[in-house]
Amino acid sequence: MHALIVVAHHEPRSLTHGLAAQIAEGLAQADPESTVEMADLWAEGFEPRFGAADLAVHHRESTPPADVLAEQVRIDRADALVLVYPVYWWSMPALLKGWIDRVFANGWAFDFSADKLEKKLGHLRVHLIGVGGADAGTYARHGYAEAMQTQIDHGIFDYCGARVLTSELMLESETQDPAIHLDAAHALGRELAAASRGLDPTSAVLPASQHDARL
User: Fold this and answer.
1) Which of the four pLDDT bands, split at 50, 70 and 90, describes residue 203?
2) pLDDT band at 115, cuts 50/70/90?
3) Contact at 8 Å (CB) between 94 and 50?
4) Enclosing domain of residue 20
5) Rounded to the nearest 5 degrees, what angle is found at the Cα of 15, between the Cα atoms of 14 and 20?
6) What are the φ and ψ backbone dihedral angles of 80, each rounded to 5 degrees?
7) 74: closest CA among 6, 7, 123, 22?
8) Structural domains counted in the chain
9) Closest CA to 99 of 150, 24, 152
10) What is the CATH number of the domain that holds 175?
11) What is the dihedral of CA 125, 10, 46, 165, to 10 degrees?
């Protein structure tokens, strides 16, 4: 199995990066033949702004820019796509949202025309790991976890035909002992190989926490 782990955080010492590393380590231990590619969007300088060239791609008037094509190739060679990100204002950071806006383009992720929608990523297995600063009660009380699932799991990935196998929120990231989340991420990494083979088709969506995590 080949996994592409995409991280959207500017600080390499952050909990977000630590979780991504633990997921990769757990996966390698569970399946020594597996491979992992880490995509650090901040360090790589990915341009998240959706511009005129991207709109032309959406309208099928142009081919995608080189940076977008490179990301699509990365995803095409992956069996599993793992997104690890801090929750900002009850959603993903602009860097990651811009990556999705530009990379999951019409003609590649889906094919939209006036009379039909073709979902083109049915082969892709997705694992979502959000790092939330608030507690589970806050997310449940205000419906934030459900809203995120509707927007991200269903609104983005199901629209393209991709199957979300894991959708979790690591909660209380600013007050909880980081070791708790790091251990959970390592365990999650060990489960990814089985999940991506379809052996564990369901995964609970955990509610999240109080302030959005900057970790």
Assistant:
1) very low
2) confident
3) no
4) 2-196
5) 105
6) -135, 140
7) 6
8) 1
9) 152
10) 3.40.50.360
11) 10
